[in-house]
Structures are given as structure tokens and as C-alpha cells.
């Protein structure tokens, strides 16, 4: 995520680029599940994933493999209705489990095809299956639900999630978002595939993540289909509904979808910036290795509530605040860099967000240098001279995860690492890190270990100074 700029800025929370997990096995139906044994001790899954910064985000007791949503949204009334089919595997002997689901109401829930009991508990949907689920068993949950979705608000981080507009809606935000429009394990440590069928009135567009499927129309409604087949953190799921010019093409043999609001000129700064998506992605491939997803693109939102950009997987979303005066390829470089650093390699805990934002900000510096503008050293020197070092990059606190200590100091730490280990080891690390953790999750400790392997150096004191100290580190 790139924080918004100037007075128009708001940072979203939806509430807003080793031990890594691998691709998850497909869940099996509970009908073929393991039979309970006398040793099984069924207990409820935790109501939170236990993140040190946001302990109630996400849930425990299961691991989601995929979300398949079949939804219908009426812009005139703001009503969202549909069905979520969720495949998962129990990570403990489960007597019940939670999904994150805010403001919407479940009308029917089945587990393994059998009726289950469900109840709302604040922003949680608690599901009790007809029988306990044995650890290691794959199961499928089907939730029929609906209502008028609403955003979530955090006093420190802002407002986001599902936001209604005059001609549609959009769902967007970090660090929590998905729970405002579908039942979900809403924490990046549980990545899953994602499929969406969204029915909207004819003449209204609905853009989401991944590869577009076949559209169909019936009785005045058009169903737009999208699928993201690479594991995705839940906050990276998005849908944008309204009046958009949707441009479909291919780049490097993969589909590219760009969406610009009808309210913006077809040849204006936003469109000019989006047109650079392929060129910028190609440059980043030379730095980070093969592009990690099956589709490219971008969506611009012309809404004053969106003073930020977010690296929604395969198709970043940009507030028009970045394009009001001129083309802005720098923000495009930032969000595309996240496709490697933050999306393909996702966080295990929010404290380590510098692994996302420090590298995406450094990608801005690299792009500017590539285009003959400010060099990375000049960008470092400018930031280093004027910075307030009181907040540590590696532990900024929950209310400062979108602050300068994460973005600017994070980028300075990346540049300082480059100067410390040398260009050869550094640029090899830029490629080996996303390759080794592709489609998974990782931590700061994992990255330190990777940097030490790449350089052959003990970097303990270096990372302590650049990630933990509250005073200015020595210039490398």
C-alpha cells in the first residue's frame, strides 16, 4: 500500500506491493473425512489468528484453500446477496469455528453438505457443524448471506472495506477488508485462491482480481467472473463496481485489464499512468525475477475517500489523487513491486510490514534512477538527512504501520543493506527472496537469514541498527 498524499490523504483500514507456507492441498469433502477416534478432543477454533498487532483479525483452527463467491449487488438499494463456498482443512479437532463477517447476515450454513448451526457474534460468524471435524480433514462450508455492507473504522488507521458510491461500490482496504463483503479468515497468514461471480445491472462494470471469465446476461443483469488461482491474502481481494471503461489486452502472453472511470478523460493522467503498467512490470522483472501472477492490470477510483493506492493482487487499485495534475508512474512502480514483495511473498504478521513497504518504496527509487531522474543514493541521502528516527522500522506499533518508519526508513534500510553487502549479493537477493517464498508467507527473521546466506556475512548488528534502534544509524 502507498499512503495517500497531501491533505487529500487518508490511510485505509478495511477496516488503507524458512517457514513459508506452500500451495495448499485441495480440501476433500467431509463425507470422506477421517472418522473420529477415541483420542479426538474437539474444541472451538480461536476467534482470532493471534497477530501481536491485531489479535482478533483472522481465526484459528482451520486453513482455507479457496473462496468461491457467487454474489449479486444492486447499486440502487445497496443490497448485496449471495453464496460463499469455502474449502478448508482443519488444523485441530474442531467442534466449531469462526469466520470474520461484518454487518452482513448469514441465512443458511452447511458444512460438508449437512446443515450447521451459525450465530453472529459482533463481526464474527460462529459455525457449529453437525459433527466435529478431525484435524487434517478437508471440509467445505457453504454460506448463504446478505445485507447492506458497510465499511469498518479504526480510529488510528481510518475507514475502508465496502464503500458504496452513487453508481456502484468498491471493496478496498488494509489491513482488514474482506470481512465487509464475504465470510473469511481475514489475516494474511492464511492465503487462499479466490473466485468471484458478481451480478450487477446491465451497463454496470464489476472488476476484480485475476483472470476474467466469460460474462453472461439474463433478465437485465450481467454476471462478471474473475478468478485468482495463486494463493492470496484476504485484504488483497477487491471488487470495483460502477461506470468504467474496461480495456482488455495481453502483455507477455498474459491478460491485462485496465479500468478507468467514465468520469476521467480517456487520455488523461490516470490513463497515461495505467498505460505504463506493462513497461514498469517488465523493468521490475529484471530486478525481482519472473512476474508471479497470471494477469496484469490496474483500476483507478475517482472518489475523494480514496487517498491511497493498494496492491490488490494482479490488479492494483489507485486513487485518482495520484493523477490529478500529471502522469505518475512512480506510484505504479510501487504497487507493481508489491506483486512480488507483499502479494506473492506475504506477511506472516503485520509487525513485519516493512518487508512490503520498504521494498516497494525502494522500487520507486530504482524506477526513478532507471528513467534518469533522482538516483537511489540521492533519494537515500535526502531521506536520511531529514528523518525522525524515533519509531523503529521492525516494530512501528499497530497505529503506525503506514508511517514513514515503514516506508521511508524501510527503503533506507534496503539501500543500506545494498551498500553493506554489495551490488552482486544484493541484486541476487532481490530475486532469490521472492523465488524461495513464492505464493507463501515470511517474516523479518526469514529475510535476515536470507540476506546472511546471500552475503556470507553476519548482519545481526546491521539489522539491529536499521530495524530496531530509535536513533540514527551510521551512514553505510
From TrEMBL:
Listed EC numbers: 3.4.11.2
Any one Gene Ontology BP term: proteolysis
Cofactor: Zn(2+)
Domain of life, source organism: Bacteria
Record's signal peptide: 1-20
The family this protein is said to belong to: Belongs to the peptidase M1 family.
PANTHER family given in the database record: AMINOPEPTIDASE N (PTHR11533:SF297), PROTEASE M1 ZINC METALLOPROTEASE (PTHR11533)
Name this polypeptide is given: Aminopeptidase N
Amino acid at each position: 500500500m502507498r499512503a495517500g498524499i497531501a491533505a487529500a490523504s487518508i490511510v485505509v483500514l478495511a477496516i488503507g506491493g524458512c517457514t513459508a507456507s506452500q500451495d495448499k492441498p485441495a480440501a476433500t469433502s467431509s463425507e470422506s473425512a477421517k472418522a473420529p477416534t477415541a483420542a479426538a478432543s474437539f474444541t472451538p477454533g480461536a476467534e482470532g489468528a493471534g497477530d501481536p498487532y491485531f489479535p482478533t483479525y483472522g481465526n484459528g483452527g482451520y486453513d482455507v484453500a479457496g473462496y468461491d463467491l457467487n454474489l449479486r449487488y444492486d447499486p440502487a438499494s445497496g443490497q448485496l446477496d449471495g453464496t460463499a463456498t469455502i474449502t478448508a482443512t482443519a488444523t485441530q479437532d474442531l467442534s466449531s469455528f469462526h469466520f470474520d463477517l461484518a454487518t452482513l447476515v448469514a441465512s443458511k450454513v452447511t458444512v460438508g453438505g449437512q446443515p450447521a448451526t451459525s450465530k453472529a457474534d459482533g463481526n464474527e460468524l460462529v459455525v457449529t457443524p453437525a459433527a466435529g471435524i478431525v484435524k487434517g480433514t478437508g471440509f467445505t462450508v457453504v454460506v448463504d448471506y446478505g445485507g447492506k455492507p458497510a465499511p469498518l473504522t479504526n480510529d488510528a488507521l481510518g475507514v475502508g472495506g465496502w464503500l458504496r458510491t452513487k453508481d456502484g461500490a468498491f471493496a478496498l482496504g488494509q489491513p482488514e477488508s474482506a470481512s465487509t463483503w464475504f465470510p473469511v479468515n481475514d489475516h494474511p497468514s492464511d492465503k487462499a485462491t479466490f473466485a468471484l461471480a458478481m451480478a450487477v445491472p446491465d451497463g454496470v462494470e464489476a472488476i476484480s482480481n485475476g483472470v476474467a471469465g466469460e460474462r453472461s446476461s439474463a433478465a437485465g443483469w450481467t454476471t462478471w467472473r474473475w478468478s485468482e488461482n495463486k494463493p492470496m491474502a484476504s485484504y488483497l481481494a477487491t471488487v470495483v463496481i460502477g461506470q468504467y471503461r474496461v480495456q482488455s489486452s495481453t502483455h507477455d502472453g498474459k491478460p491485462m485489464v485496465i479500468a478507468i472511470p467514465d468520469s476521467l478523460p480517456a487520455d488523461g493522467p490516470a490513463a497515461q499512468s495505467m498505460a505504463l503498467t506493462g513497461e514498469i512490470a517488465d523493468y521490475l522483472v529484471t530486478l525481482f525475477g519472473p512476474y508471479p501472477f497470471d494477469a496484469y492490470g490496474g483500476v483507478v477510483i475517482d472518489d475523494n475517500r480514496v487517498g491511497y493506492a493498494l496492491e490488490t493482487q494482479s490488479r492494483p487499485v489507485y486513487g485518482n489523487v495520484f493523477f490529478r495534475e500529471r502522469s505518475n508512474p512512480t506510484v505504479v512502480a510501487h504497487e507493481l513491486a508489491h506483486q512480488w514483495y507483499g502479494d506473492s511473498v506475504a506477511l506472516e504478521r503485520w509487525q513485519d510490514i516493512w518487508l512490503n513497504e520498504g521494498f516497494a518504496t525502494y522500487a520507486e527509487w530504482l524506477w526513478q534512477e532507471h528513467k534518469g531522474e533522482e538516483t537511489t543514493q540521492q533519494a537515500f541521502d535526502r531521506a536520511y538527512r531529514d528523518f525522525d528516527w524515533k519509531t523503529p522500522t521492525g516494530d512501528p506499533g499497530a497505529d503506525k504501520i503506514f508511517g514513514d518508519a515503514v516506508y521511508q526508513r524501510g527503503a533506507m534500510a534496503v539501500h543500506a543493506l545494498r551498500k553493506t553487502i554489495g551490488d552482486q549479493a544484493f541484486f541476487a537477493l532481490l530475486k532469490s527472496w521472492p523465488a524461495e517464498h513464492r505464493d507463501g508467507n515470511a517474516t523479518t527473521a526469514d529475510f535476515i537469514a536470507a540476506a546472511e546466506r546471500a552475503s556470507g556475512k553476519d548482519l545481526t548488528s546491521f539489522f539491529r541498527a536499521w530495524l530496531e534502534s530509535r536513533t540514527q544509524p551510521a551512514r553505510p
